[in-house]
């Protein structure tokens, strides 16, 4: 296990012990592709990853598609030269195939076993490792490949030792059940935040019942819940930032989300922390959640959330956020009422 000064928890049945927050490497892929966050300085990315590792974060989550291979290369650069004991776990994903001739075209969701085997070799090469700690199917395939075929391929890669564990991202409870019949689903990676709560209805409870680890992404809803976002900042997002096209960042959706974000401030002040850390800690309070993936583009951004894994929101904090959620009408999915007494929850 990578050494860390921070508390760890088991990641399902994988044998890995992970810190409750991990470094998310989506934005560090840089610009020039469909779901980019805009241009990014690689030196700043390397500094951010190393700062997170030095602060005790012991896992990094990336994907082949982030920057169309570039994020994995930056992760490899950041971790190069680290002693084995200090090297964090590296998780990556497959199943999104891009067109090198048109890098701004949306990647295709591919489950073809031959493609997946080509992809894992490319990720191993870019990451500079002999085995990937966790390999995840990024989205359900849309090329006609049945789930059973692509999940069986990932299970074979686990058996062959090319990857240590395998998981699914953005799959629902019914798909998890089908996969489990083929081979154990080590992990699920769904979106989860105060704004995006859909996975908490069925998928996360399924995981809790099947000893499947859950690492949630976008706990700060791509910056909306950091306490630093505003209408003006949303309006100024460049065209090459995918958020400029999202309903969460425009119109009535944006206003509701910012009203919810305002409620994080008083909770953060009581704990002497940041709204971002409170947003992340809320996801970690959801039963069944193992850890949260949190992105950063600089060491300073890491400092804003790295303490979230040890931040415990009490019943009063959670009830305050429950009330703000109900008042704002923000987002999607069940209102979880985490601040309610256990016997009163529904």
Main attributes?
single chain; 346 residues; alpha/beta; TIM Barrel; two-stranded antiparallel sheet; 12 strands; globular
Count every beta strand, where a strand is a DSSP E run of 2 or more residues.
12
The amount of helix comes to 25-40%
**Silhouette:** globular
CATH class of the domain at 8-228 and 283-301: Alpha Beta
How would the blueprint of this fold be written?
Blueprint: E1 8-10, E2 17-19, E3 21-24, H1 42-54, E4 59-61, H2 70-79, E5 89-94, E6 96-97, E7 108-109, H3 113-127, E8 134-137, H4 147-160, E9 166-169, H5 173-180, E10 187-189, H6 203-209, E11 213-216, H7 231-235, H8 251-262, H9 264-271, H10 275-284, E12 291-295, H11 299-305, H12 315-328
Parallel strand pairs: 3-4, 3-12, 4-5, 5-8, 8-9, 9-10, 10-11, 11-12
Antiparallel strand pairs: 1-2, 6-7
Description:
The structure is a single chain. The chain is an alpha/beta fold. The chain has a domain at 8-228 and 283-301: NADP-dependent oxidoreductase domain (TIM Barrel, Alpha-Beta Barrel). The chain is built from twelve helices and twelve strands. It has helices at 42-54, 70-79, 113-127, 147-160, 173-180, 203-209, 231-235, 251-262, 264-271, 275-284, 299-305, 315-328; strands at residues 8-10, 17-19, 21-24, 59-61, 89-94, 96-97, 108-109, 134-137, 166-169, 187-189, 213-216, 291-295. The strands form three sheets. The chain has an eight-stranded parallel barrel, surrounded by six helices. Strands 1-2 form a two-stranded antiparallel ribbon. Strands 6-7 form a two-stranded antiparallel sheet. Helix 1 (42-54) crosses helix 2 (70-79), helix 1 packs parallel to helix 11 (299-305) and helix 8 (251-262) runs antiparallel to helix 12 (315-328). The radius of gyration is 19 Å and the shape is globular. Mean pLDDT is 93; it is low at 342-346.
